[in-house]
Amino acid sequence: MSVVRYACRVGLVVATCSLFAPLALAKDGDGNNSHLPNIASIIYSNNIKSASLYEAGKYQEALKLAESTLKKAEAELGENDRNTLTSLQNLAVLYGTLNRYEEAAAMSEKALAARERTLGHDAPDTIQSMNNLAYIYSKLGRDKESEQLYLRSIDLMKEDISHYKENIEDNVRTLGIMYESAGRYDDAENIYTIVNNNKFEPKADINNMYFEHDMYFADLYTKQGRYGEAEVLYDQMYDRHGKGLLHHDPLSMWVLRSLSTFYYKMARYQEAEVLALRVLEESERQSAFLLPEFRERDREYRRNSPETMTYVLNLAHIYVAEGRLDEAGKLYQRALNRYKDDKVESVYITAYLENVHRKQGRPSHLEQALTAALALNERRFGREAQSTLSWVNRLARFYREEGQPQKAKPLYERALEGAERVLGHHNPVTLDGLDGLAYVYQSEGRLDQAEALYVRAVGSRERALGSNHPDTQESLKGLVSLYQGQGRAADAEQLLKRFPQRHGGKR
Predict the structure, then answer these.
(1) In angstroms, what CA-CA distances link 342 with 10, 37, 98?
(2) What are the C-alpha distances in Å from 203 to residues 103, 197, 415?
(3) Contact 381, 363 (CB under 8 A)
(4) Mind giving me the DSSP string for 72-133?
(5) How many beta carbons lie within 10 A of that of residue 37, not counting itself?
(6) Cβ atoms < 10 Å from Cβ of 382
(7) Cβ atoms < 10 Å from Cβ of 376
(8) pLDDT 10s digits, 128-175
(9) How many CA within 13 A on the CB side of residue 472?
(10) 148 in Cβ contact with 38 (< 8 Å)
(11) Model pTM?
């Protein structure tokens, strides 16, 4: 399985999932091109050369050849010739690889329309173009259009499950990540149930070993704050697949990465770090199965591949929680260098990096970065998506820490109202909103309202995370401060005895 397809399996922290197929090479029906006119033979040969350069990582050379080949093909063979369509799709893939997404979208739209017109809506090349365009739309933040194409592609591929099984699984996982980011949990669960259908999982098919239905639900439960249910599934999957990580095994990598994220959420940082380092090192490791002439190129690709960047970011988050800011900053900068031309990923990574700079006491543009990330998420997923409301809370927290509760207040109110209505009373975003708005009310002297919110936050966080978790401790600290300010020393003392304090705080 290619590293590109593997990235889609594991589900990446910021949704970086490429469905680009290898460059499709045009052949006529019987694969014999000896009778092609001379110009068609040249175009066909150039497409093969472009694909070879692409596979060798020589993207600029491949791009130059692909651009000239398409121009010649359109002029000499016409827009509907199969060789022209392959040239068009190849150029779209190259633009996407080089993060030139607007140009890639234009080319992919043209390729899809032409292939539907000439080959039919259910032809393999048409479906490939559909998936490529869906991916490009997601990189441009056009997620509604991306979703429609992925769903349409799944419906078409279900007509030939034996041929398209892996592609269906990729689309299911990509859509699931999209739905989770938007807080559309019912839709995520519905799309994941596809894998329960035995038609998609013939028992004798060894390729199904990495497509574990339980992992999808474990990751989903973690995002929802259903930690107990998630832990049961993670433990089962670790016993089956996570103990022995060999040769970049996809399922083991997925299990360990997800378990690391779970430990991070539960503030078990040392355990999270061990697993995060393990999968990062494995992702970067030179493949033992490649021929010597390909190893150096493969090593460089692995260092900068989408899944490696996912592990880099996961480890950076853990380092921030542990207070290891210099190490975290270097990892965020590495990821930002990789995605500097990516209009989606770079926005989020910039916010993470600016947060580190601020914590280090360095000049920071965190307010601007948080505002940009929030605006991007609103465009992508809507105003009430879980990820959007999470960014609302982050911006509110910035104002809170800057001593500007009046700027924080409308943001916390928005996050709490939306999260309670859409995500439920015990979702992590809801609890962040409760805690933040309680702080604002306390600063305004609305102590009864503040107390009610603090009590809810402490109770919910204790049940979900335990009494020693930094988030529980932060809510507790606010409630103790409120009691002490009211002269309720006995109530404060009783809380402190109930919740032994530990070092740590909000991430």
Answers:
(1) 20, 41, 9
(2) 42, 12, 45
(3) no
(4) HHHHHT-TTSHHHHHHHHHHHHHHHHTT-HHHHHHHHHHHHHHHHHHH-TTSHHHHHHHHHH
(5) 10
(6) 17
(7) 19
(8) 889 989 988 888 878 889 999 999 998 898 888 777 777 887 888 888
(9) 22
(10) no
(11) 0.71
